[in-house]
Amino acid sequence: MDGGTRTLAIACGALAREIVALKRLNGWEMLDVECLPPELHNRPEKIPSAVKAAIDGARARYQHIFVAYADCGTGGQLDTLLAAEGIERIPGAHCYEFFATGAVFAALHDAEPGTFYLTDFLVRHFERLVIQGLGLDRHPELALEYFRNYRRVVYLAQVDDEALSAAAAAVAVRLKLSYERRLTAYGDLERSLAGAVSVPVASLKHRKGASAWPH
Question: Around Cβ 106, how many Cβ atoms within 10 Å?
Answer without folding.
Answer: 12
